[in-house]
Amino acid sequence: MEERRVTFTSGRLQLEGVLAIPEGAGPFPAVVVCHPHSLYGGSMDNNVVCALTETLALASLVAFRFNFRGVGGSQGQFGQGRGEREDVASAISFLATVSEADPSIIGLTGYSASAAFALPVGCDDGRVRALAAVSPPFSMSDFAFLRGCLKPKLLVSGSRDALVQPDRFLAFCRDLPEPKEYELIRGADHFWLQRESRLAATVTAFFAGVLKSRPF
């Protein structure tokens, strides 16, 4: 696996990111990985984001993590969700230009707040073939848009997540349209400490199964 630091534009801003490129000959399916809330310490160096990126690349998927506006070396300031959605769209467009990535087979995952920012963009973008929400914060967004999204989707949360009540999580997932997968991982809280590998394996298996096996 090769890691490559890059910059890309979002509107008038320059954002920073890291590409994880698998070994072998591409182009590979690719996945954008979005970090948690910028105002609460979220960044592309988050433990969950890094675990997801590494595990995806080891499964022969290009993985792209980046810092939203105002985080790390990315220009600008927090955009109240609207700016972050623009950043997600720009990250998808940038990833589609990477020579090792297949521009027509892209996945998108958001952890915590970025699930609310990113997944509406992915639902509407034809290049995005599959979506994953990790610890979706229902207190921030009702995620009602997913009820009209017919793309393959995965939702994962922890049984000890103080921000995502397990009963509410499961009830919401049951009501979503197919195709869907969902899992409540026992013992995990919102931060996934010491359970990053378990989570990353679940998310990677979903994306590998959808993006590598379906004709698009």
Number of helical regions: 5
- How widely separated are the two ends? 26 Å
Identify the strand order in the major beta sheet: 1-2-4-3-5-6-7-8
Order of helices and strands: EEEHEHEHEEHEH
Low-confidence stretches: none
- CA radius of gyration is 16 Å
**Would you identify the CATH H-level superfamily?**
Alpha/Beta hydrolase fold, catalytic domain
CATH class: Alpha Beta
* Total beta strand runs: 8
Helix content: 25-40%
CATH architecture: 3-Layer(aba) Sandwich
DSSP strand content:
25-35%
CATH topology: Rossmann fold
Q: What do the pLDDT scores average to?
A: 96
Summing up helix and strand content along with how strands pair, one would put the structural category as alpha/beta
Largest sheet: 8 strands, mixed
| Total domains | 1
